[in-house]
Amino acid sequence: PVPGRVLAADLSRHAGHDVVLEGWLHRKRALKSVVFLVLRDRSGLSQVVLTDPSAMAGADGLTEETVLRVRGTVTENPQAPGGCEVTSPEVTALSGPAAAPPFDLYRPAVPATLPTVLDHAPVALRHPRLRAPHAIAAASVAGFRSALDTRGFTEIHTPKVVASATESGANVFAIDWFGSDAYLAQSPQFFKQAMVGVFERVYETGPVFRAEPHDTARHLAQYTSLDVELGFVSDHREVMAVLRDVLAAMADSVTRRAAEECALLDVDVPRVPERIPEIHFADAQELIARHTDKDPRGEPDLAPAHERFLSAWALREHGSEFLFVTGYPMAKRPFYTHPEPGREEYSNSFDLLFRGLELVTGGQRLHRYEDYLDALQRRGESPEPYAGYLAAFRHGMPPHGGFALGLERWTARLTGADNIRRTTLFPRDLHRLTP
Ligand code: AMO
């Protein structure tokens, strides 16, 4: 009896037997008296040998990327990949002849520019180097989840269509929702906070939307936000400690689960220090003023060049590829941010810089209802649109905090990608809505 589908990687276990292989025609080599078909499946490559003249003629019309089912005998051959090949095959095409790919999918270096890759993403992503970042992203998310699952967090899934913006400063997409005004969620911020009141500790991985009006190598209009929120923290430092452990688990998971992809892309998986160094925003500005030709003091935020400067400083002074910048000015943080006790113009919040780029934002939040009303009033905002959000705070919320990590930025920094679009499946931005 012929077993069900066998994967290329398992072929040698079936030596001497008949098997069924299914996959894509990866390469075809037609010689005078033999045709070699290299078949690709998710586990690797296998070699199929045709010597019968009519079978060889039947292979004439087969183009690379056509999906095939092959039934034949597994025969040992030390010259074949994996030491085995399939002989006396019966070959069936499961789809019509495949159209030629936009570029050679299996040349070691990608012979195409980023726009070509993105235009042809459904097939271009089959290239091992273009696929690898997404396998690394998957391994990262697996590490994120397992770190939080073992720490008593519950995974949640919250709406992506919302009635009010949460991230002041970030741009929001307005949509028509059955005749009412609605927005695409910029963050699960409100919901993850509310869910602290239910589960104490929650996390979410999901899409968020930012109407980014400019085209940069680090901004997308839709990205994947890895969100965490936890109750009963005394300040932002406890949140930073959780983030540190989560990053270590992500790095570890990448090393273990995506070893092949890391080797292919020459990924340098970072060592996450036991204690990630930190610098207060005010001290960071002093440092920049002292060591660069710009004096940023008085500015409410860090410029990208200053983030790169601080990252380089952390690597030099502390041997760390990660740096926490804490205490960002309240003026630049959203209304839910908790101020720094004793220095109310600063906040109990942080950014985490990784290899020169902001990777994470987080902090402690306000947790008392009256504090929210005050904060909104100080910003000249009505509490009305936030009524649903604020409801949680009228029913007892613990001191809490959390963070959000941009998955595509993490993968881009890991893989050394020059553009975040290289680590995004089907990116959405100012100029791109397809494929
Ligand atoms: P923030 O707006 O800083 O914080 O976003 C958190 C992280 O998301 C990533 N990021 C982006 N990635 C790609 N394209 C974009 N346009 C983009 N914008 C942001 C960055 C950033 O550090 N609610 C807060 C988080 C919190 O406090 O829990 C928030 O969304 O890696």
UniProtKB/TrEMBL annotation:
Organism: Streptomyces spectabilis
Residue numbers binding ATP: 210-212, 218-220, 358, 406-409
Short name of one Pfam family: tRNA_anti-codon
GO CC terms in record: aminoacyl-tRNA synthetase multienzyme complex; cytosol
Locations listed in the record: Cytoplasm
SUPFAM superfamilies tied to this protein: Class II aaRS and biotin synthetases (SSF55681), Nucleic acid-binding proteins (SSF50249)
Keywords: Aminoacyl-tRNA synthetase, ATP-binding, Cytoplasm, Ligase, Nucleotide-binding, Protein biosynthesis
UniProt record similarity statement: Belongs to the class-II aminoacyl-tRNA synthetase family. Type 2 subfamily.
Binding site for L-aspartate: 167, 210, 361, 365
One of the GO biological process terms: aspartyl-tRNA aminoacylation
Name the record gives this protein: Aspartate--tRNA(Asp/Asn) ligase
Subunit structure: Homodimer.
Gene from which the chain derives: aspS
Ranges for domain Aminoacyl-transfer RNA synthetases class-II family profile: 144-427
Role noted for this protein: Aspartyl-tRNA synthetase with relaxed tRNA specificity since it is able to aspartylate not only its cognate tRNA(Asp) but also tRNA(Asn). Reaction proceeds in two steps: L-aspartate is first activated by ATP to form Asp-AMP and then transferred to the acceptor end of tRNA(Asp/Asn).
One function term, GO molecular function aspect: aspartate-tRNA(Asn) ligase activity
Gene3D superfamilies linked: Bira Bifunctional Protein, Domain 2 (3.30.930.10), Nucleic acid-binding proteins (2.40.50.140)
InterPro entries listed in its UniProt record: Aa-tRNA-synt_II, aa-tRNA-synth_II, aa-tRNA-synth_II/BPL/LPL, Asp-tRNA_synthase_2, Asp/Asn-tRNA-synth_IIb, NA-bd_OB-fold, NA-bd_OB_tRNA
HAMAP family: Asp_tRNA_synth_type2
Region feature Aspartate, mapped onto this chain: 189-192
EC number annotated for this UniProt entry: 6.1.1.23
Catalyses which reaction(s): tRNA(Asx) + L-aspartate + ATP = L-aspartyl-tRNA(Asx) + AMP + diphosphate
Highest taxon in the source lineage: Bacteria
Site feature: Important for tRNA non-discrimination: 81
